[in-house]
Design goal:
With 90 residues, the protein is mainly beta. The protein has one domain. It has two helices and eight strands. A three-stranded parallel beta sheet has the order 1-4-7, with no helix packed on it. Strands 2-5-8 form a three-stranded parallel beta sheet, with no helix packed on it. The termini are far apart.
Length: 90
């Protein structure tokens, strides 16, 4: 979460500037990143999301700016052995 709370928006306005680059985000389900207030530039990041339960990425709130470019998303599927052990089979 970038940009504090809804009530602190006035204090963050035009002050928060963040760059996210060359990061690996694994098992991300949502809000990658979530921006409430401020300016964010996200580029050349790799997001690895689970095959189920994934909701969304790159959430933008009011009075925020997000520039996202050249980010990669990979959907990770559960392996056969992980599925078997999760269901109690081996």
């Amino acid at each position: 979460m970038i940009g504090n709370s809804d009530s602190a928006g006035a204090a963050d306005r035009d002050k928060v500037r963040v760059t996210l680059h060359h990061n690996l985000f694994e098992n991300v389900i949502e809000r990658a990143p979530r921006v409430r207030f401020g300016k964010v530039h996200a580029y050349d990041n790799h997001l690895v999301v689970p095959a189920s339960g994934y909701a969304y990425s790159l959430g933008v709130g009011q009075e925020s700016r997000l520039v996202a470019e050249k980010n990669a998303f990979t959907c990770r599927r559960a392996s056969a052995s992980a599925s078997a052990s999760a269901s109690g089979r081996s």
